[in-house]
Design goal:
Order of helices and strands: EHEEHEHHEHEHEEHEEEEEHEEEEHEEEH
Bound molecules: flavin-adenine dinucleotide
CATH architecture of the domain at 56-81 and 134-196 and 272-359: 2-Layer Sandwich
Number of strands: 20
Oligomer: single chain
Distance between the termini: 31 Å
CATH class of the domain at 56-81 and 134-196 and 272-359: Alpha Beta
Shape: globular
Largest sheet: 9 strands, mixed
Helix content: 25-40%
């Protein structure tokens, strides 16, 4: 039986480990923290957003980004670093800010999203997970700006797509009565039924338990992966702070830190942290939280009910590899939320969190083989890691086991 070492115990590494075990491999999992899912998977927006996948890089975004930088409570911050990597990523991001590139990447992400939805639903119906707060309320994307709303609805219309429903402000209110308490004048919304929400952390922890109970699981090693032992050009061992771990295949699924690991064998990954924040606010009897999952698209704020809490996730700050909570940004998020859905939850009692999205310039993850035989990648899921995790993991498992990829991988592989 082939022994595969998976590096990273976030939602992407865990789903990869599971898919490999179910494909007949022996698996070891290496995680540097003392618990699982302590990185970007910890308190994300919880949206399984299979249809709303449009990447950040798009036509007009550079101009919008300049405006956002000067807005007091804008969704973006930029701190220049003395690192070539930041500037190279930015240059590549800007070159992806074209309508044609955005449409191409969106098509690829839609295919991966649909596949991920199918894999997840197969897993969920057999795994009998509890307390992951899975619901399928659909997703309402709200627009404040009339021009932007018209532009988006025209684009939807020209795609001949019938799944998304374009809604007037009144129809939005009818669909989501919690908007009656919003002082915002909305231009309209786009609703997609079938979109799901769940607690990514709870799901990761339960998946971790199932992995550890699997007969082919060799062990969870809490150690930091440092690099690889390579013999005859092939990866044969993982170097960790607890010693070397020998294996047949190695999968890097270490989120943002995949970049440093790949660099140890001369592979440059175009991944940069897009820092985001979340609030998890308790919902009391007097609150009126949204039932559908809501995205305030111009503010880039998501509202998702997860169990008895409202999860609010926002912001994309380019401030380097720094996951500390900036009090000014959290205060800004509180202001935005209270000015939008003031009655939705007890925001004064929120748990606050910051995480780093492992983002590629195009917004597409990088899956599959590397130039080093035996070394594989499942990285760069950016703002969609929870959504795409199950599909990406199945692609990886198929490739590692010598099966063809279940979907075309152009644009989803290491360039
Ligand atoms: C504010 C915010 C909101 C979001 N909302 C959503 C959403 O609604 N829907 C969605 O689909 N996605 C969302 N995302 C994105 C999603 O959370 C990420 O894409 C996803 O969690 C990435 O998973 P990962 O496993 O690749 O990375 P991580 O969860 O960061 O896991 C990487 C793991 O690797 C470990 N590791 C790193 N280096 C090493 C090493 N050298 N050795 C051993 N272990 C190592 C880390 O400790 C960590 O546990 C959001 C992200 C943020 C920040």
């Amino acid at each position: 039986m082939r022994h595969v070492v998976v590096i990273g115990g976030g939602v992407v590494g865990l789903t990869t480990a599971w898919a490999l075990l179910e494909s007949g491999c022996q698996v070891s999992l290496v995680e540097k923290e003392s618990g699982l899912a302590m990185g970007a998977s910890r308190a994300n927006g919880g949206q399984l957003s299979y249809r709303f996948v449009s990447p950040l890089a798009d036509e007009g975004v550079p101009i919008k980004a300049l405006r956002w930088l000067f807005e007091t409570d804008g969704p973006l911050r930029f701190r220049p670093e003395m690192q070539l990597h930041q500037w190279a990523w930015l240059a590549s991001f800007l070159s992806n800010c074209r309508g044609s590139v955005n449409r191409r990447t969106t098509r690829r992400l839609l295919a991966l999203g649909a596949f991920s939805q199918a894999v997840f639903s197969g897993f969920y119906s057999s795994a009998k997970l509890d307390a992951v707060s899975l619901r399928t309320p659909g997703k309402l994307v709200l627009y404040r700006n009339d021009k932007e709303f018209t532009r988006v609805t025209r684009r939807l219309g020209s795609g001949g797509d019938t799944i998304e429903q374009v809604l007037s402000p009144q129809a939005c209110l009818h669909l989501e009565p919690a908007l009656a308490n919003s002082p915002v004048r909305w231009a309209g919304g786009v609703f997609t039924s079938g979109e799901a929400v769940a607690d990514c952390y709870a799901l990761s922890i339960q998946l971790g338990e199932r992995i550890q109970a699997h007969p082919s699981f060799k062990g969870l090693i809490h150690a930091q992966a440092l690099g690889f032992g390579v013999e005859g050009g092939r990866a044969v061992a993982l170097r960790t702070t607890q010693g070397d771990l020998v294996g047949d295949e190695f999968v890097i699924a270490a989120g943002l830190h995949s970049r440093a690991l790949a660099r140890a064998v001369g592979i440059e990954l175009p991944i940069y942290p897009l820092k985001g924040y979340s609030l998890s606010a308790p919902i009391g009897n007097d609150h009126l939280p949204p039932v559908v999952s809501v995205t305030d698209v111009e503010k880039k704020i998501l509202y998702t009910r997860i169990g008895s809490e409202l999860r609010v996730a926002a912001m994309a700050d380019l401030v380097g590899d720094d996951a500390t909570i900036d009090p000014a940004r959290i205060a800004s998020l509180h202001r935005s939320v209270r000015a939008t859905l003031p009655m939705a939850a007890e925001f004064a009692q929120s748990k606050e969190w910051a995480g780093l999205r492992p983002a590629t310039p195009s917004g597409a993850p990088i899956l599959g083989a590397t130039p080093v035989p035996g070394l594989w990648l499942n990285v760069g899921h950016g703002a969609l890691g929870f959504t795409l995790a199950f599909g990406s993991a199945q692609v990886l498992a198929d490739l590692v086991c010598g099966r063809p990829s279940p979907l075309p991988l152009d644009g989803l592989q290491l360039a």
